[in-house]
Design brief:
Layout (H helix, E strand, L loop, with lengths): L14 H19 L5 E7 L13 E7 L6 H8 L3 E3 L8 E6 L8 E7 L3 H14 L2 H17 L4 H21 L17 H7 L5 H11 L7 E4 L7 H6 L4 E4 L3 H10 L5 E2 L13 E7 L7 H11 E14 L4 H13 L10 H9 L2 E16 H9 L2 H4 L3 H17 L8 E15 L2
Parallel strand pairs: 2-5, 6-7, 6-9, 7-8, 9-10
Antiparallel strand pairs: 1-2, 3-4, 4-5, 10-12, 11-12
Length: 433
């Protein structure tokens, strides 16, 4: 494609400020048009978002939409700021905008896409990988200068020449053990899945029956258990006659589940990136798992893979902290859990309200008493992700403090079996059409 002469210039420290100003202008236009609720986030992407990287003096702005396509009102609000809407421009699921008049000098591009979708993730991963890797940043700058000299008026050839490099960096970012697809503390679950399985409570039969009934699970229904772990929820669903796919990113947990439930199909995947076509599933469940997910990305992905009218159920076993010794147990967990997602924070409720992709359909709570030995109670604490991820010294100190709690409280002192009181919460969300 013929175009004006391509220019690759040294990094300009003013670029972040220009992005911030344009983001504010866009957000103001969306508020005025009463469509701001359609937008989850706005990111500065591309080379101008990477300090010390040579770039074309063109700002790329990525708009994360709660759902794609955007409304006519949102598109019109952007156009009123002087942008030209060019449709998808070869990228499915993207609204592409150019600023200025045809043939004039460009300074901004806008990419409005589904928040948390593949385009969103790839762009963020590429940007962040370059920010953290001076060698890759330098190689990319050299490549762009070379391509600009070779194709000074051919933007298509310039773009094609970068694709292989970009794919390599994104693939490396996905495979980088320092950038895991799940929260780093989840690695604690992989240390001893057998201990996790024997020490953790299951779900009461009445909660499982409620789940099966409210999600309409049965023959011919496609369902998936997200963050399935060792199969604590998958097992009861299978026993109830449900055909379910178990999705689990942690390798040791996945192996344990496959051995325990050999008839179940197990996927090595995350809730944020499911290898399924749009509308493939009728129902999704997540037991003791959703607080580990990126809530925006997971809800966006759930919306994508669920058919219209599909439902998402979130379940948690919550300790009853009105019992004194249980409250002391929770306090020990919290002392080790700084920065670790916690179910009790209930962040997911705010995200459901913000995204408006799902509506809270109904919720129920069921009593659930877990009877275990004293040693199993210690194992239960030790299997908590934040505790399992501690170094040996701090972990043993914390477990020692818990043993002291068990030895001193009248409800647990000297008992061979301990009754741990839980409340099983089931939240059923309906996919918004």
């Amino acid at each position: 494609m013929a175009c004006r002469v391509l220019r690759v210039v040294d990094y300009d420290p003013a670029w972040p400020g220009r992005f911030a100003a344009e983001r504010a202008r866009l957000e103001g236009a969306w508020r005025e048009a009463r469509v701001a609720g359609e937008v989850v986030a706005v990111e500065h992407i591309g080379s101008t978002a990477v300090p010390d990287l040579a770039a074309k003096p063109m700002l790329d702005i990525m708009v994360g939409l709660r759902a794609w396509p955007a409304s006519a009102g949102l598109l019109a609000a952007v156009e009123r700021l002087g942008y030209l809407h060019r449709g998808e421009m070869g990228v499915a699921g993207r609204h592409y905008f150019l600023d200025g008049v045809p043939g004039g000098e460009r300074s901004h591009h806008i990419h409005a896409v589904e928040h948390g979708g593949r385009f969103w993730r790839d762009q963020v991963q590429f940007r962040d990988a370059l920010r953290g890797d001076p060698e890759a940043r330098g190689a990319y700058a050299d490549l762009k200068r070379t391509l600009a000299r070779a194709h000074p008026r051919d933007s298509s050839a310039y773009g094609e020449g970068k694709h292989a490099f970009i794919r390599t960096v994104v693939r490396r970012a996905r495979d980088n053990p320092d950038q895991p697809p799940v929260h780093p503390a989840v690695s604690g679950f992989d240390t001893d899945p057998a201990r996790y399985e024997r020490s953790r409570p299951g779900y009461p039969p009445q909660a499982t029956r409620y789940l099966v009934d409210r999600l309409g699970l049965g023959p011919g229904v496609r369902a998936a258990d997200l963050g399935a772990g060792t199969g604590k929820l998958t097992g009861p669903l299978v026993a109830a006659g449900v055909e379910v796919v178990a999705v689990e990113p942690a390798a040791a947990m996945r192996r344990h589940l496959a051995e325990a439930l050999p008839a179940v199909e197990v996927w090595d995947a995350t809730a944020e990136e499911l290898p399924a076509a749009a509308g493939w599933f009728d129902a999704l469940v997540a037991g003791q798992a959703f607080h580990w997910f990126d809530p925006y990305a997971a809800l966006t992905e759930a919306y994508r893979v669920l058919r219209p009218g599909g439902r998402l159920a979130l379940m948690w076993n919550m300790r009853d902290e009105s019992v004194p010794w249980v409250a002391r147990w929770s306090a020990l967990v919290e002392s080790a859990a700084a920065g670790v997602p916690r179910a009790r924070e209930r962040r997911w409720q705010h995200v459901v309200a913000a995204t408006q992709l799902f509506a809270q359909h109904e919720a129920r709570t069921f009593p659930n008493v877990h009877r275990i030995t004293r040693d199993a109670a210690v194992d239960r604490l030790a299997s908590t992700s934040a505790v399992a991820a501690l170094d040996t010294g701090p972990r043993e100190q914390l477990l020692g403090e818990f043993r002291a709690v068990l030895d001193s409280d009248p409800a647990t002192r000297g008992r061979d079996e301990i009754a741990v009181p839980y409340r099983t919460e089931v939240h059923v969300l309906a996919r918004v059409p």
